[in-house]
Please model this.
Amino acid sequence: MFTGIVTAKGKLEAVSGDVDRRFSVSSPYPGDTIDLGASIAHAGVCLTVVNVEQTGKESVFDVEVSPETLERTTLGSWTEGRDINLETSLRMGDELGGHLVTGHIDGVGTVVERAEEGDWLRIAIDAPPELSRFIAEKGSIAVDGVSLTVNSVAENRFGLMIIPHTAEVTTLGALQIGAQVNLEVDLMARYAARLMQAED
Model:
C-alpha cells in the first residue's frame, strides 16, 4: 500500500528480457534501506525488488515486470534513461499525506492539454471510458503514482492543477501533450461504485 506521495525520482538504467522484462533502476535510496522482496511503486506500479546494489550513498535495484503489467500500464514502452516516480511502501504509523494507493493500475490515460500559469501547471487527461464513473471533481486520483485532486470533470476528461513543488520533484512537470500516464482511481470511489451496483 502507498500514499501517492513520491519520495524520489529514479532513472531506468537498463532493460532486459522480452516476455518477462527486468528493469535496473538507479535511485537516491541508500541500498541498505531496500530489502529484497520490498515493494516499490514505479510511476504508480507496484513492483518487487529482486536485487540491490549500493552505489555510494545511493543504490541500483532490479525489479521484474510481468507480461500483464507491460500490457496494462505504460511500462511496456519504457526505455533506458527514463525518469521514474518512486515511492516505498507505507509502513504502519506513517503519515498518510496523500490518499490510499494500491499500486494496481486501472488504466492508461493520455495528456490532451497543458498550460503553464505562472509557476503552476494545468493539465487535462483523457481517461479510458470505463474509469469515468470513478473520477469526481474534488476527488482523488493517482497519476503516474502521484496523489492529486481532480479539479474538473467532463465526460472522460479530467483536469488537474500541479503545484510548483510537485512539478519539480516528480515527472509530472515534464509531461507534454500526447504523453501516456498510469491512472489509479480512488479506492473509496471504486468500492462505493461496487456497492451501488450490488444494490441495483
The radius of gyration is 17 Å.
